[in-house]
């Protein structure tokens, strides 16, 4: 069990007030970060009683950000999930993830036709598409390929790759995480730069592979440069709201959001509108969509309401999981950030 250093907690309640799941579900349904990360472990071997409750955490990292004692609450919640993991006891949606990993090395069942590797054989930039872009939202896959081609990036797609392991980390299955990591490190070995379009993949590679990947936004800004990105004027003027994915804004870093804003502002004919709590979790992460889809949907609807209140015509999100979950809410058009850029880049 993780060393909790429980005395560091000053019981201020900041983590509970910041938690998006508590705001949606209430403490009677979800006991909150402090209860799970600090109090629950005092029961020692009996900690399994939090099994269902702890799986409602979206691992948005907001509780860790606001904790004045700097207690790593999200890491502790993930550690508890790891400690209590039992394959026979996982939720139905999580069991399907495990089955897909064992059968396909993907967290979701692959599409009938997988994209073939593209790019120059000696390309030093590797684009890692991730499971969702490859098999659920191919527009994201196509958009990233288009952006890399238009910016003349010397990129390749891996011939063989496996899920990064982030969904398994959220479930608590670290044995499979290690297996996938070894497979992917062999596939990544000869490349100088790893580019990802999923902040969850980016974060997992940083934290668990000791790699330094770049999200597509970082690559466009740092390797290409925003001044070299020339955009066409949209057919109609748009009020665009930017959703700030948790992993991108908090674990990859707030600089990525600054990059995203600056690039968006270079697209003529759009007005970037601010929405309340732009960085509040939409419910797409932490395995909550698979385990508790109703909780994930409630969070997505709250984010869409914020965008509608700001009179946005379009909500863009630089994360496949966020796009997928926000689209479930209905009520307005949701578009992946890279797909939006690709559709306007000359």
Descriptive overview:
By secondary structure, this protein is α/β, with parallel strands linked by helices. The chain has three domains: 6-84, Fumarate Reductase Iron-sulfur Protein, Chain B, domain 2, CATH 1.10.1060.10; 125-224, 3-Layer(aba) Sandwich (Rossmann fold); 229-344, Rossmann fold. It is 48% helix and 8% strand. The chain has helices spanning 14-18, 20-25, 33-39, 51-54, 62-66, 73-84, 92-104, 131-135, 138-150, 166-171, 174-188, 199-208, 216-224, 246-252, 254-264, 288-291, 293-309, 320-329, 337-344; strands at residues 125-128, 155-156, 193-196, 214-215, 238-242, 270-273, 314-317, 333-336. The strands form two sheets. It has a four-stranded parallel beta sheet with strand order 2-1-3-4. A four-stranded parallel beta sheet has the order 6-5-7-8. Helix 12 (199-208) links the parallel strand 3 and strand 4 (214-215). The longest helix has 17 residues, at 293-309. The termini are far apart. The model has no long low-confidence stretch (mean pLDDT 92).
């Amino acid at each position: 069990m993780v060393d909790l250093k429980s005395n560091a907690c000053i019981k201020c309640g900041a983590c509970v007030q910041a938690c998006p799941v508590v705001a949606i579900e209430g403490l009677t349904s979800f006991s909150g970060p402090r209860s799970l990360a600090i109090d629950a472990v005092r029961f020692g071997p009996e900690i399994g009683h939090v099994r269902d409750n702890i799986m409602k955490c979206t691992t948005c990292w907001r509780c860790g950000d606001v904790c004045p004692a700097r207690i790593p609450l999200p890491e502790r919640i993930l550690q508890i999930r790891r400690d209590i993991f039992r394959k026979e006891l996982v939720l139905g949606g999580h069991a399907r993830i495990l089955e897909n990993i064992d059968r396909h090395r993907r967290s979701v069942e692959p599409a009938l036709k997988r994209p073939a590797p593209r790019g120059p054989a000696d390309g030093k930039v590797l684009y890692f598409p991730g499971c969702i872009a490859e098999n659920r939202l191919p527009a994201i896959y196509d958009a990233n390929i288009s952006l890399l081609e238009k910016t003349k990036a010397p990129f390749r797609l891996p011939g063989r790759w496996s899920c990064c392991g982030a969904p398994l980390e959220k479930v608590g299955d670290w044995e499979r995480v290690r297996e996938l990591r070894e497979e992917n490190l062999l596939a990544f070995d000869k490349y100088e730069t790893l580019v990802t379009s999923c902040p969850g993949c980016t974060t997992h590679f940083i934290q668990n592979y000791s790699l330094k990947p770049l999200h597509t936004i970082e690559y466009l800004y740092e390797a290409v440069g925003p001044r070299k990105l020339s955009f066409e004027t949209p057919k109609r003027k748009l009020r665009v709201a930017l959703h700030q994915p948790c992993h991108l804004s908090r674990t990859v870093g707030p600089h990525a959001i600054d990059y995203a804003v600056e690039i968006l502002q270079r697209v003529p004919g759009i007005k970037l509108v601010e929405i309340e709590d732009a960085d509040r979790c939409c419910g797409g992460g932490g395995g909550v969509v698979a385990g508790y889809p109703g909780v994930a949907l409630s969070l997505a609807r709250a984010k869409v309401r914020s965008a509608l209140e700001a009179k946005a015509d379009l909500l863009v999100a630089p994360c496949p999981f966020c796009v997928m979950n926000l689209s479930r809410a209905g009520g307005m058009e949701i578009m992946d950030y890279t797909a939006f850029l690709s559709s306007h880049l000359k």
